[in-house]
Write a structure and sequence with these properties.
The structure holds 3 protein chains of 3 kinds. By secondary structure, chain B is α+β, with helices and mostly antiparallel strands. Chain B contains 11 helices and 22 strands. Chain B has 2 domains: about 350 residues, FAD/NAD(P)-binding domain, CATH 3.50.50; about 90 residues, Arc Repressor Mutant, subunit A. In chain B, strands 1, 2, 9, 10, 11, 12, 19 and 20 form an 8-stranded mixed sheet that branches. In chain B, strands 13, 15, 16, 17 and 18 form a 5-stranded antiparallel sheet that branches. In chain B, helix 1 packs parallel to helix 5, helix 1 crosses helix 8 and helix 2 packs across helix 8. The longest helix of chain B is centred in the N-terminal third of the chain and has 20 residues. The model of chain B has no long low-confidence stretch (mean pLDDT about 95). Chain C is of the alpha/beta class. The chains are: A alpha+beta, B alpha+beta, C alpha/beta. Chains in contact: A-B, A-C, B-C. The interface between B and C is large, with 51 and 50 residues.
């Protein structure tokens, strides 16, 4: 599988394949890239970021770790449907969202 | 029951509206759009012509010269900017320039002269020196065409005139010396005499009035708008051709520069700009000037000029009684508007002293509040003042025309959303209900599938 | 609070905040003038991740990056004035409209960090109707991220700069359909990872060498005509097609917002000339971040802010006065510009530049009067990415040239 590493702005071209039951990553220039290549091969995952209005505030939110790509829209829907009471930056909004192991945390809060 | 009902809130309709209120009549202005000046009156060159161009003896010639004379006092009363900057027609064909000069004199235009070389180049430092002669018309000037329209209508409303917006006329009944006018949203207005000043929409209203329909032609003119700079300090025309006054360069009353218009005959009313048209402007302007600051271009627009024969049509309708037809008001329509209003008042028999008018206040405020439009330095309080001004504008473009929020080089990138929020707040509507200019033109839509 | 400062920073975004932080650390009395109601600038609406790897060694979202800087500003007790719109700079005097009232501030040194604005439809001479629904990508970003409103539900994006790519993903996540991204150039100026995670992840068609020829829709956008372009970037009208949509977003470049400086110094060219201290030709005026030149990352804008802030503090206490002679930096034809453009060479410094095209396995070389004083081997140099090379202290004895060999 050929892909582009998304771990940093460099964007290395990766070649990922399986050999003797082991996932091999080529083209990376750092260990983060190797880890990314392996996950991308087995279970591609992404950090999801979005916003939510509540009262006088606009909250920006993110998953604190990547969630499987297939879950992205489900995570979005869950975030939109869950009521948000007042929180602060760094607070957990939804714990272990849809059993992905990722928490939704507040990354920013603006008075609108 | 109104004495007079005017169809169309362009500069002509607004001028008549204003004049009639000044003369003490009970008047209503019906506009299908959400504000005045949303058609040809917002999209022209903003020039107050001297009057040498129109053929002697025509209504255009007469009303242009008269209109020009009325501008100083009118703009002063309305509290809007008018600058008598002068205009030049440049070209090396001295015969043609002399012809224009002679025609101007016949039309009664004062302050015309032919200037040459050094004197000309000093007036227009960026003019190419191939151009050696020009007709100089001292009385030409600049006005914001939409601010003139807005101010005319505002003053009329402050003094008892009624302006109805979003009024799409659906049906007109005639009974017992009066017209009963129905809008598509079920409003009814009654009037004794009606004036059709709808410009491009002339035939739609004429049909409903069972009045004379006319053959109308559309001519599109495209423009470039440049950010404020001193590329030219007065209007510079090329020699006129059959198609019109040609592609000119002019400052605006607010200090921007306009380059244009093109002149393209089109079959249907269409204000889209085109790649070809815009290239034409660049070509013509580069042929006339050096140092054209094309990097200052911030916007393009086009306006559609309506013509009906060669001259203005301003007359009692021949088929329907108590209907005044106003049609084919293209250039110099803006300049002529105050004189057209005088003429129509005379036609309908409105004479005598103007009543003492309460003057409009404009949108200036003591404290601007926080700056909303950064490019044009427009404060929140100024925007609020515009939103709550006499015509109760409810569109982003309506506010932009009044206080220039969004007219700078970022073209609303910074302030668009804030202006929408202020309109929504003041009108008690949702953010997604705020329109840019027209009904059905919401700036934002409600959230996606999750909302 | 007196209105006299050592360093006033105009603009509280990533570059401005870092400038203020570094100036304060140098012992200066610092003030930030910010026109919004909070610090952070554009980072507040850039809710996606990908920031901070360089500066904080961890992956952060825009608001988190801003929050980290803000925490330091707070810790250092650097005051800010909000709602302050600077209208004029004359010598050491700054005039600002604060909530619409005119106020004056005085500072020995001034750092301009006013960011950038987006290129508009008018500037690219977009033809057609001018109804609602044509916005810059950043405006659309603000609509959705601050107010939860969509700029459209069927979207075409013109330009494949990073903001456009980010917005393609953002609009898709919010339930809009992004029909196409059109890029007039044969390649994207956006980061490769953004093509991967914002476009390919969602199978959004990205067409190179294509542009919008005309927008249709008097009230609101009803569709766009688009066509392939030839090598001169002129649309081939025979390839024109129609695409129904209700929104056109533009991601066609950023323009440094430095009107303030051009009002002080009428001779300002398109590009502002600075030395390695980010000092302009007006000695007490420093400039950094996107208001000087467009950066790929907030991290880089912040790094530049640090240089400007530190230098401004040095200037304020008279320590930047004996710079000696400054030399020009010229560059080979493969390079479009460098920052700085002149140097004194008092200490070590970095030269930042952009290449005009992509190169594989090339060396970046800096020469001083023919002698190589710095070089760096690069596996790949792309036109989309800012390049940098460090020059050691004491090497500069005359004018420099930068080249790709």
């Amino acid at each position: 599988m050929k892909t582009i590493c998304i771990m940093c702005p460099v964007g290395c071209s990766l070649n990922v394949y399986e050999k003797n039951g082991e996932v091999i990553v080529e083209g990376n220039s750092c260990p983060r890239g190797e880890a990314y290549g392996k996950t991308e091969f087995v279970n591609p995952s992404r950090v999801v970021t979005t916003t939510k209005r509540s009262g006088a505030f606009s909250y920006s939110l993110k998953t604190d770790k990547p969630v499987p790509k297939t879950m992205i829209f489900k995570v979005m829907e869950k975030i939109k449907k869950t009521p948000l009471k007042e929180l602060d930056v760094g607070d957990v909004f939804i714990k272990n969202i849809l059993k992905t192991g990722a928490n939704i945390i507040v990354t920013g809060k603006l008075t609108i | 029951m109104y004495d007079y009902v005017i169809f169309g809130g362009g500069v002509v309709g607004a001028a008549i509206f204003n004049k009639f209120v000044r003369l003490g009549a009970k008047v209503a202005l019906l506009e299908k759009e959400l504000d005045v000046a949303t058609g040809a009156s917002k999209a022209n060159s903003g020039l107050v012509h001297a009057g040498f161009d129109a053929e002697t003896g025509t209504l255009k010639a007469k009303l242009n010269v008269r209109g020009n004379e009325l501008f100083e006092k009118l703009c002063q009363e309305l509290g809007i900017k008018f600058k008598r900057t002068g205009a030049l027609v440049v070209g090396n064909d001295e015969e043609k320039l002399k012809e224009l000069l002679a025609r101007g004199k016949k039309n009664g235009v004062k302050g015309l002269s032919i200037i040459r070389e050094e004197k000309l180049w000093k007036l227009v430092p960026n003019l190419r020196h191939e151009y050696k002669s020009a007709l100089y018309a001292k009385t030409a000037g600049l006005v914001s065409p939409y601010m003139l329209t807005i101010a005319l209508a505002e003053e009329a409303v402050i003094n008892g005139g009624q302006a109805l917006f979003g009024f799409t006329t659906k049906k007109i009944e005639k009974a017992k010396g009066c017209f009963k006018i129905y809008s598509s949203d079920k409003r009814v207005v009654e009037g004794k005499v009606v004036i059709n000043a709808t410009g491009a929409g002339y035939n739609d209203i004429a049909r409903l009035l069972k009045a004379e329909e006319r053959e109308i032609r559309f001519r599109r003119g495209e423009y470039y708008v440049l950010d404020k700079c001193d590329f030219v300090n007065l209007t510079v025309f090329p020699l006129p051709t059959k198609l019109g006054k040609g592609i000119l360069a002019t400052p605006t009353a607010s200090g921007n520069i306009l380059l244009g218009p093109t002149a393209e005959d089109i079959l249907e009313f269409d204000t889209a700009t085109t790649m070809g048209g815009l290239e034409n402007i660049s070509g013509s302007i580069t042929a006339m000037f050096d140092n054209v600051p094309f990097d200052k271009i911030i916007r393009e627009y086009s306006g559609v000029r309506v013509s009906c024969g060669d001259d203005f049509v301003i007359e009692w309708d021949k088929k329907a009684e108590r209907v005044v037809d106003i049609c084919g008001i293209n250039s110099p329509g803006l300049t002529s508007a105050p004189a057209i209003a005088e003429m129509v008042a005379e036609m309908v028999g409105l004479r005598g002293q103007e009543k003492k008018m309460i003057r409009r206040k404009g949108y200036a405020v003591k404290v601007k509040g926080e700056i909303v439009c950064r490019c044009e330095k427009v404060g929140k309080n100024e925007i609020l003042s515009a939103i709550n001004s006499p015509l109760k504008p409810c569109t982003v473009d309506g506010i932009k025309r009044r206080v220039r929020a969004g007219m700078g080089k970022c073209q609303g990138g910074y302030c668009l959303i804030d202006v929408c929020r202020l309109i929504a707040r003041e009108r008690g509507i949702k953010l997604e209900e705020v329109n840019k200019e027209h009904e059905g033109g919401a700036v934002m839509l409600s959230g996606g599938k999750y909302e | 609070m007196s209105s006299f400062y050592d360093v006033i920073v105009i603009g509280g975004g990533p570059s401005g905040m870092q400038a203020a932080i570094e100036a304060k650390k140098e012992g200066a009395k610092v003030l930030i003038l910010e026109c919004n109601d909070s610090l952070g600038g554009i980072l507040n609406q850039c809710i996606h991740n990908g920031f901070g790897l360089r500066q904080f060694k961890e992956e952060l979202t825009g608001p988190e990056f801003a929050y980290k800087q803000y925490s330091e500003v707070k810790k250092l007790k650097i005051p800010s004035v909000f709602g302050a719109y600077v209208t004029k700079i004359e010598g050491e005097k700054i005039t600002a409209l604060v909530r619409g009232k005119e106020k004056e501030y005085f500072s020995k040194a001034i750092v301009l960090a006013t960011g950038a604005r987006e290129r508009t439809a008018g500037e690219i001479k977009l033809a057609g109707d001018r109804g609602a629904g044509i916005y810059t990508a950043g405006t659309a970003q603000k609509m959705i991220n601050y107010y939860g409103k969509l700029s459209g539900k069927r979207v075409v994006i013109l330009g494949s700069g990073d903001i456009g790519l980010i917005m393609a993903r953002r609009m898709t996540l919010e339930g809009a359909k992004v029909l196409k991204i059109l890029e007039i150039m044969p390649s994207s100026s956006g980061l490769r990872r953004n093509i991967r995670q914002c476009v390919e992840d969602f199978e959004i068609p990205l067409e190179f060498s294509h542009t919008v020829t005309r927008v249709v829709g008097r009230e609101r956008v009803k569709g766009v005509y688009y066509a392939e372009v030839d090598e001169n970037l002129k649309p081939k009208l025979e390839t024109e097609k129609f695409l129904e949509c209700d929104c056109l977003l533009l991601s066609v470049g950023l323009i440094p917002e430095n009107t303030l400086l051009s009002e002080v110094e009428k001779n300002i060219k398109k590009q502002i000339i600075v030395n390695e201290f980010r000092q302009t030709s007006i000695k007490n005026l420093f400039i950094s971040g996107n208001s000087l030149h467009i950066h790929d990352l907030a991290d880089n804008a912040s790094e530049e802010g640090a240089i400007a802030g530190r230098s401004a503090a040095l200037f304020a206490r008279g320590a930047l006065e004996e710079l000696g002679e400054e030399y020009e930096i010229s560059f080979s034809s493969a390079i479009s510009y460098t920052v700085p453009q002149r140097v004194s060479g008092c200490g070590s410094f970095k030269i930042f530049f952009r290449a005009k095209q992509n190169f594989l396995r090339k060396k970046i070389v800096v020469r001083c009067e023919g002698e190589e004083i710095a070089s760096k081997f690069c596996v790949g140099i792309t036109s989309g990415e800012m390049q940098e090379i460090e020059v050691e202290s004491g090497k500069v004895k005359g004018p420099l040239t930068v080249s790709i060999e």
